[in-house]
């Protein structure tokens, strides 16, 4: 029996039924804060963990005034949408600046750290990462060097690890 693309396409319905997965909305008051002892930096992270996503995770991240995230790397990709504030990021050997309305991309397995350049106002990110997909594939790995510099992180975690 041979495959007939025309017949296959003709058999597809033009009606797409809504999914049954719920909830469709996680309200700000329902975000689940990650316990401070699970976050290796002064950032506050709250996850929209009850969304039925299967390939990505979504967080609200706040970096207090004058603070930074930890120096870290992980196997998943991350995009930060800057909701409020301004700062800069070290991503491997590049330093990039950003402000509200910008998107910051962190490629897989790159050392990176995000800094709030304001002495008075927090930075708020909407953070989206494909960690659930990577976890499903059995490839999850994350390393944190805490508030170390890039050089300190590289020395502590050799590239062969």
Strand order of the largest sheet: 1-2-3-10-5-8
Order of helices and strands: HEEEEEEEEEEHEH
How would you sum up the global shape? globular
Instruction: Quote the distance from N terminus to C terminus.
Output: 50 Å
Total count of strands: 11
Unreliable residue runs: none
> What percentage of amino acids are in beta strands?
25-35%
Q: What would you call the structural class?
A: mainly beta
Please, what is the average pLDDT?
A: 91
Biggest β-sheet strands, sense, barrel: 6 strands, antiparallel
Question: What is the rounded Rg?
Answer: 20 Å
Classify the helix fraction into a percent range: 10-25%
Question: In summary, what is this structure?
Answer:
The protein has 161 residues and is mostly beta strands. It is 12% helix and 34% strand.
Give a written overview of the molecule:
The protein is mainly beta. Helices cover 12% and strands 34% of the residues. It has helices at 5-11, 131-136, 150-156; strands at 32-33, 44-47, 57-63, 72-74, 78-84, 86-91, 94-99, 103-106, 112-116, 123-129, 142-144. The strands form three sheets. A six-stranded antiparallel beta sheet has the order 1-2-3-10-5-8, with no helix packed on it. Strands 7-6-9 form a three-stranded antiparallel beta sheet, with no helix packed on it. A hairpin with a 2-residue loop joins strand 6 (86-91) and strand 7 (94-99). The longest helix is centred in the first third of the chain and has 7 residues, at 5-11. The radius of gyration is 20 Å and the shape is globular. The mean pLDDT is 91.
């Amino acid at each position: 029996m041979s495959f007939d693309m025309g017949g296959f396409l003709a058999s597809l319905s033009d009606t797409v039924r809504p999914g049954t997965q719920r909830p469709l909305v996680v309200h700000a008051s329902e975000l689940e804060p990650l316990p401070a002892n699970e976050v290796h930096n002064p950032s506050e992270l709250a996850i929209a963990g009850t969304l039925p996503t299967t390939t990505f995770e979504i967080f609200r991240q706040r970096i207090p005034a004058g603070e930074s995230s930890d120096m870290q790397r992980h196997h998943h990709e991350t995009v930060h949408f800057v909701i409020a504030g301004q700062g800069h990021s070290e991503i491997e050997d590049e330093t990039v600046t950003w402000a509200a309305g910008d998107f910051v991309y962190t490629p897989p397995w790159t050392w990176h750290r995000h800094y709030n350049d304001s002495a008075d106002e927090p930075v708020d990110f909407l953070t989206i990462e494909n960690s659930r997909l990577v976890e499903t594939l059995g490839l999850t790995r994350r390393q944190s060097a805490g508030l170390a510099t890039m050089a300190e992180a590289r020395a502590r975690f050799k590239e062969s690890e």
